[in-house]
Design brief:
two-stranded antiparallel sheet; single chain; alpha/beta; globular
C-alpha cells in the first residue's frame, strides 16, 4: 500500500510549497499530500514543472485543502478556490482532495470537484465532527464523500476505534500520527511519529494500517527529529503488510 507524506509535516523545518515537495522527494515514498493551511497559500501556489514530472511518477498524490482561515460556501471565492484545487489535482493526478468538515458551510458545492472528495475526523476542539456519529451521519447524507481517517484525532477525542473500522469501505486514506511525550518538559504533544506512540495507541492504530489503504505521514518534522522520517516510512510499511479484514 502507498506510503506518502504531507507537506504540512515540513512546517517546523520552515519548508512549504515547492521547497517542501523537493525535500520529501528524497525519501522512499509513493507520493505526497500537498497541504495548504491558508487559502492564500493554495491560490498563490504554482507547481514547479520538474517537480510536477516527479510527482506524476508516484502512485498516490493527494491534496489537503485550507482549513485555518476559510469557510466553503456557495460564493465566488469558494468557487475560485475549488477551481484552483481541481487544476492542481489534475497536474499531479491527485487521488483525492480532503477537507476539514468544520470549515464547510455548504457540502453540496464540493460535488462539483472532478477529483474524489473526502473529509477527515477532527479532534476534541471541534465537537461537531470529532465523534464517530457525526462523521457517519455526514457520510450517509452526502454519498459522494469519502473519509480520511486521522489516527491522532480519533485518539485525542477518545473515539471508539472499532466503530470507525465499520467504515472501512468509506475510508480512502489514513493520516498517521500520534500523541507523544516531549522529553525536555515531559509535555504531551500531538502529531508525533507512530514510532513515538505508546502501546495503547499502537494497539488502536494498527488495524487501520492493515486495511490496505494509502497511509499519509502527518507527524511534525521538528529539525531534531529528521532522523526519524526514514524509520517511520519503514515502520509503516511493516505495520501495513498483512490485512486481517
Amino acid at each position: 500500500m502507498p506510503i506518502t507524506i504531507s507537506t504540512g509535516s515540513c512546517h517546523d523545518l520552515k519548508l512549504k510549497g515547492n521547497d517542501a515537495i523537493k525535500f520529501l522527494l528524497d525519501y522512499d515514498i509513493d507520493g505526497i499530500e500537498l497541504c495548504f493551511a491558508y487559502q492564500k497559500d493554495l491560490i498563490e501556489f504554482e507547481l514547479d514543472g520538474e517537480l510536477q514530472q516527479e510527482l506524476l511518477k508516484k502512485d498516490f498524490n493527494s491534496i489537503h485543502m485550507p482549513s485555518r482561515d476559510f469557510n466553503y460556501s456557495n460564493n465566488k471565492e469558494s468557487i475560485k478556490t475549488l477551481h484552483k484545487a481541481d487544476k492542481l489535482a489534475k497536474q499531479i493526478n491527485a487521488k483525492y482532495i480532503v477537507f476539514h468538515p468544520s470549515e464547510i458551510n455548504d457540502f453540496k458545492i464540493l460535488n462539483q470537484l472532478k477529483t474524489q472528495v473526502a473529509i477527515e475526523n477532527l479532534h476534541r476542539d471541534d465537537k461537531q465532527y470529532s465523534t464517530f456519529e457525526s462523521i457517519k451521519e455526514t457520510l450517509d447524507k452526502y454519498s459522494f464523500l469519502k473519509l480520511v481517517f486521522d489516527t491522532d484525532h480519533a485518539f485525542i477525542s477518545k473515539n471508539d476505534f472499532d466503530k470507525y473500522l465499520t467504515l472501512k469501505d468509506d475510508i480512502i486514506g489514513i493520516h498517521a500520527c500520534s500523541q507523544w511525550i516531549r522529553k525536555r518538559d515531559n509535555k504531551e504533544k500531538s502529531h508525533g511519529f507512530i514510532q513515538e506512540a505508546d502501546n495503547k495507541q499502537l494497539e488502536l492504530y494498527t488495524p487501520f494500517f492493515k486495511l490496505r489503504k494509502p497511509i499519509m505521514i502527518e507527524a511534525d518534522f521538528y529539525p531534531e527529529k529528521k532522523e526519524l522520517i526514514g524509520k517511520e516510512i519503514e515502520l509503516l510499511k511493516k505495520l501495513s503488510q498483512k490485512s486481517t479484514f
